[in-house]
Amino acid sequence: MVTFMPTALSPDQVAQFHQQGFLGPFDAMPISDMLGLRGAVTTLLQTSPDPFPEEGWHGRLIPRHHNRFLDSALAYRLSTLPEMVTKMTSITGDDLLLWRAHFFDKGPGAKEIPWHQDYNYWPLEPPVIISAWLAIDRVTRDNACLQVIPGSHRKLLPHIKATPDMAFLEMADPEYVDESLAIDIELEPGQFILFNERLLHHSEVNRSSLPRCGLSIRLIPPIVRVLQYDAQNHVLPIVSGQDKMRFNQTDFKMPKGG
Ligand SMILES: O=C(O)CCC(=O)C(=O)O
After folding, report:
1. How crowded is residue 165: how many other Cβ atoms within 10 Å of its Cβ?
2. What is the pLDDT of residues 149-194, one digit of tens each?
3. Is 133 in the pocket of ligand 1 (CB under 6 A)?
4. C-beta 90 within 6 A of ligand 1
C-alpha cells in the first residue's frame, strides 16, 4: 500500500477545524491504490470477524463492518494511515488511541443516515473524539456522500427517536437542523476529511446504482475513558505517542494476513 508522506496541519488549518468542526479533503493514498484495494475490502466485508462477537454491538451495527482492525491487518492499516493520524495529532496532541473503525458500506438503496452528532451515542467520558471519514469508493452527491453543516458543532442538540426507514435509532431533533446550510463532502477513493464529535452530519438514501463505501475511524486521547467495550476482544491500539493515563485496554496484537 503506497501512502502519502505525513504532513502536520498548519496553525491556520487547525483554527479552521475549530471554526467549522471539520477539515478536508486530504489525500491519504493515491486513488489507484485505493481502487486496487477495493476487491480486498469487499472480501473483508463479506467475511466474519474472528472471533465473532456474540453480544455488545451497539444499535444496528453489523459486526462484519465494525472494528475489523481487531482481526484484519488491512483494516488496521486503513484505520491508521500515517497522513490521517499525523493530521489528527495536530488537533489533539501526540497521544492517540484507536477506539473504533466502522465501514459505512452503503450500496444501492441503502437507508438514509439521519442528521446526528456523534457524541449523542457514545459510551465515552468525556465524549471527546476525532474522526476521519476515508473514502473507499468515489463518493458524490449521486451516491449519497456524507453531508455536514459547518459550524454546527458549537451547539449540542437534543436527539429523538429516528423513523424506521433510517439507518440509526436516534436522530438530531429536526426542529434544530437547518438543512439549507448543508454541504456535500465529495471525495475520491483514498481521500478523507476530519471532524469532531459534535459536527452535524448525514447521508441520503443511496439512489444510484453505485457502491458507496467509506471507513469512519475514531481516535481518542488517553484522557478519555471507554465506559463500555464493544465486544470481549475489543482493545484500543496506541496509534501515536503513549498512553500515560492507562484508563483503557490497549494490549493490542497486530492481526495476521489480510
Ligand atoms: O457514512 C455515512 O453516511 C455516515 C457516517 C457517520 O455517521 C459517521 O462517520 O459518524
Report:
1. 9
2. 999 999 999 999 999 999 888 999 999 999 999 999 999 999 999 9
3. yes
4. no
Q: What number does the ligand 1 atom closest to the CA of 145 have?
A: 3
User: Does 2 fall in a domain?
Assistant: no
C-beta 113 within 6 A of ligand 1: yes
* Ligand 1 closest atom vs CA 118: 10
What tens digit of pLDDT does each residue of 200-235 get?
999 999 999 999 999 999 999 999 999 999 888 899
Please tell me the distance from the alpha carbon of residue 46 to that of residue 216, in angstroms, as a whole number: 18
Ligand 1 midpoint to CA 104 (Å): 7
Q: Determine what percent of the chain falls in helix, strand and coil, rounding each to the nearest 5.
A: 25, 25, 50
What's the start-to-end Cα distance of the chain, in Å? Answer: 12
| Cα–Cα distance, 13 to 32 (Å, whole number) | 27
Look up the pTM and report it: 0.96
Ligand 1, atom 8: closest residue by C-alpha: 216
The finding on whether 192 has its CB within 6 A of some atom of ligand 1 is no
CB 214 within 8 A of CB 132: no
Structural domain count of the chain? 1
* Enclosing domain of residue 141: 11-240
- CB 70, CB 197: distance < 8 Å: no
Query: Is the Cα dihedral 64, 69, 71, 74 positive or negative?
Result: positive
Beta bridge partners of 45: none
Q: Give me ligand 1 centre to Cα 134, in Å.
A: 10
Assign 64 a pLDDT band (cuts: 50, 70, 90).
confident
Give the distance (Å) from ligand 1 centre to CA of residue 252. 25
Per-residue pLDDT band at 55 (split at 50, 70, 90): low
Beta bridge partners of 135: 214
Supply the CATH number for residue 198's domain: 2.60.120.620
